[in-house]
Structures are given as C-alpha cells and as structure tokens.
Amino acid sequence: MSRAAMVLVFVFGVVTNCEAAASKFVWTLDRVGGELILRGIDVIPGDDGVDTAVRITCIGKKLQLGIGADTSIGKGEHEFVSVDAIAGTVVLKVNGTSERSKNAEMTGANELVKSIDAVDPLIKLMLVERKITFREASGKKFSVPTSGFAPRFAKLKSACA
Q: Which CATH topology does 23-160 take?
C-alpha cells in the first residue's frame, strides 16, 4: 500500500471513530415507577453513565426541576445553588438546592433542584427559544437545545394536572 493510501486510511478511520463517538441531545418522556420524567440528555454512544442536563419530574401533581446533573452542580448536600439560564439577550436566574441526581449511583453527580409550576419563567423560555445556555457562578456552562421539548412537556403537563 502506498504511503498516501495509508494516510488516507488512517485519516478516514480517525474521522469515522470521531463521528461514531459524537454526542446527540435528546428529550425523552418516560414513566419510572410512579413518576413521569421528562429528560434532556446528551447521549454519547457507548457511555452508559450519562446523566441529565435538564430533568422535569411529575411527583404527585407537582413538577420538580433538576438542572445540570451531567455537569454536577454543587456538593449534593442541599446547599443553595444557582445558575443563569441564557437565551439571546434574556438571562434568568434559577435558584435551588444541590441534591444528588436521580442517577447518582451510576454517575456520582449532583444537580440543582427546585419545585416549579407549568408557567415557570424557565419553562416559558424553553418553549420559545431554540437553545438555552446554563452558566454557574464559577463560569462553568453547558447548552441545551430545546428542539423536541415542547411536545413532550405538553404531555407531561397534561398528565401531571
């Protein structure tokens, strides 16, 4: 095999492997036990230890919001934490407590947790914007595409009413 052909095979193999490992953001709505859970997850092929970027759980007739389990926010000791939710020129401050994520056994992660209602300003923002960037006070940030959020949230809201 010529040197040029070997380089092409090597480069093609590297590109193919990178593409296979690329993440894909998805919104899922699942029933787990007695809870209906809407999850925004950055799925990485071959990684079973992923956690949610955004989680909205129907517990009884109330909604609980979880933010940032995939990046781990706070110490998980019920201390006060906050993040900014940024979309274009809009910046919302989201306050809550840091708690162990619902998937902490697999990931060891913590998330910002708070009770919300269906007309919470963050929900309204997620229904109209295409992407929300969450930023912690430390400067750590992550972005969440909202494509697919609205129809799943409508189902969750209806089931939780």
A: Immunoglobulin-like (2.60.40)
